[in-house]
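Our consortium's second objective concerns turning raw sequence data into structural hypotheses that experimental partners can test. To show how far this objective has progressed, the report includes one record in full. It was chosen at random from the queue rather than selected for favorable results. The single chain below, 222 residues long, was entered without modification.
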Amino acid sequence: MNFNKVLVAEDTDSNNFGVVTKLKSIGVHTIGQSQYCDDALLKIKKAQFDKQPYQLLISDLSFVNPHRKSKLKSGEALIKAAKKAQPDLKVVVFSVIDKRSTIQNLMEKQGVDGYVCKGLNGLKELENALNTLFIDQRFTCPVATAVLSQKNVLELSDYEQQLLRLLANGFKQSEISAHFKANGTNPNSIRSIEANVSKLRDTFDAKNSHQLVHMATSLGLI
């Protein structure tokens, strides 16, 4: 058993071809394709109007279309709009993005039914996702499952998040001290800021502040 009508939203020809080939191999009869989020949404709405709606949307998250103006500029925006237009539409994300915060947001807040990370086994996991969704169960590939199951031992306080955001924006420690003092944030001495940055570097096992910011950003903590 499988879905009969699927829309693939993917801006890269090679990835688009791979997904379509996989869908055909498992017996999907009608496959729509779009390299632009706006076009994908129009196809979803038209199919509804024609009373032949899509059953499933498979969407990437990143769309780079430099020569075309568009209202929907990302897969997340497309998914939100598609779910609003057709609440019963099943959605699978097929993306290289494996950040915990992104996966959590899409699965828990945006109503995404499946999340598959692109990679060596991506297309096989996509097939597994379709089989799982068809019996009304949600699906995450092994990579996404592992990311979601990680204990978030690196939860940051509001103070630490502010500190890291300022570092990410290029503030020097003396400038962070002045900013904190101006906004009544404590502790705000240069010595305390140095101590907190050093503590965070140890926590993240980061060699310097640049690596610290990169790691915290990659983990979706700031």
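The partners drew two points from this record. The domain at 5-149 is CATH 3.40.50.2300 (Rossmann fold). The two ends are 42 Å apart (CA to CA). Both points have been shared with the crystallography group to help prioritize constructs.
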